[in-house]
Structure formats: structure tokens, C-alpha cells
């Protein structure tokens, strides 16, 4: 696996989390170099969302450590958590936009809620974020009046308006067809480079992840069984990695058949 000497913005070490008797994270570790786009892959139910929830402090790990910018991010350490919340944004699967607020008001909200920036600057920064995401002309539109792709861009505008160093993406392409999945990953990669934030994405979309990411990791049985570059992932001879590549390819064939209106083959169902 490729060594990366870039300083780490986020380091997860030996994260353990169970629900009742169900062990979901079993010593998961991950390195996220500053300025990179890192994708955690894994089958449905592998624990990708639980991993993000541990970062968001929504779920408390049973043991293990999280380091942000070199400092431990312990549950209950209010100062470290507040610092993390200030420097990190989440982008949820559902976009979590407020239907009753305009595009501009949606983007203004995190600045109003988490900073003491004066109103005039909030307006300027929010308009700038909309401009950067090519949505300025839609500032007075409500989310329901925007296309799915525009809603994703609006959610990203809201996530970056606080100028976060780290953006966490939970299944950003869930429920989208392959073309739109591609567009969403291209958008993440483009703006990640343009704004220079570090991105951590969790998904099961292998093809898009390999094209867009600097590094990928595979979560299986509660552990990262692979961490490396997309090329290393493609070339890996590990059985777990091979199985994941095969199942992703089979899913791709099934989706292509469905798009062509063909009946499902027994192996696909
Ligand atoms: N609050 C909870 N209480 C009990 N079990 C939970 C809870 N949250 C998650 N789990 C369990 O943890 C496991 C992993 O769930 P998680 O949502 O992290 O999977 P995932 O990898 O994100 O899957 P998907 O790709 O389908 O979203 C599942 O078995 C789930 O039922």
C-alpha cells in the first residue's frame, strides 16, 4: 500500500462500537491526509454511517481514538468538540435542506447559527458561496424548485460557507442513477480541489470512488481491510477487495440491464 507523507488532518485509531451483541466497528482505523479526498467503501450495513456518526459525536464509540489536526477528539471534551464542529461540515444523504427557506437563506443559516459574523458579511459570504457553486441566479428559489443536482450543489454551498477544513459526505450518491452518481463525485472532486478542503466520503459506489478519490479504504467486518490509492485498490490481490470489486461489477451489470428494460437474470436477483 502506498505510503503518504502528507500531514494527517484526521486519524481514526482502533474504533470499536457494538449495539447489543452486534459488533459493528471492530478496531477500525483510517488516515485522512490534509487536502485529500478519501473514500471509505463498504457493503450495505458495513458500518460506514456508524463511523461518520462517531465523528459527528452522534454515536459514542466503545473504545478507540479520533485525532483531528493532531489533537484527540474525545467524547465529552467540549472544547475539542466545539473546535471540530467549527472546522468541519457534514453533507447528509438527504441534503437536509430546509424547504421553507430560500437557497440564500439555507446557506446563511450555518453562519448565523455557528458564528458571530455580522449580518452584512453573512449575506456577502453566502452570495459568494452560491456564486462559486453556480447557483447565484437561484438564490430566491426554494429547494423544491431546484433540480436534484442543484439541490446537491446547494447543500455543498451551505457546507462550505463556514470555510471548513474537513467535509464529511454520507452516501452522497445514494438513490441516484449512474450518470448522476458520476456527476456528484465529479462535483465533490472539483470543489474539493477548488476550495482546498479535505473530504471524507462514505459510499458503496466503487467506480465513481476510484475515479475521484486520492485514497480509498474498504470497511469489512468492522475493520479497514484495505487503505491505499485507487490504482492499488484495482491491483489488489486481497480476496476481500476482489469480492467487493466483483459484487460492484455485478451490481453495475444489473443496473445496466434494468436501464435497458431487460428482465433480471437469476444471478442478479
Ligand atoms: N443506533 C443503532 N442501534 C442499533 N444498531 C445500529 C444502530 N445504528 C446502526 N446500527 C447497525 O449497525 C450496522 C451498520 O449500519 P450502518 O448504517 O453504519 O451501515 P452502512 O455501511 O452505512 O450501510 P448502508 O451502505 O446501507 O448505508 C447495521 O447492522 C445497523 O443495523
UniProtKB/TrEMBL annotation:
UniProt xrefs under InterPro entries: AAA+_ATPase, ABC_transporter-like_ATP-bd, ABC_transporter-like_CS, P-loop_NTPase
Xref: SUPFAM superfamilies: P-loop containing nucleoside triphosphate hydrolases
PANTHER family reported in the protein's UniProt record: INTERMEMBRANE PHOSPHOLIPID TRANSPORT SYSTEM ATP-BINDING PROTEIN MLAF, PROTEIN TRIGALACTOSYLDIACYLGLYCEROL 3, CHLOROPLASTIC
Domain of life of the organism encoding this protein: Bacteria
Designated name of the protein: Phospholipid/cholesterol/gamma-HCH transport system ATP-binding protein
Record has ATP-binding as a keyword: yes
Keywords tagged on the record: ATP-binding, Nucleotide-binding, Transport
Organism: Prosthecobacter vanneervenii
GO molecular function terms noted in the UniProt entry: ATP binding; ATP hydrolysis activity
Domain ABC transporter: 10-246
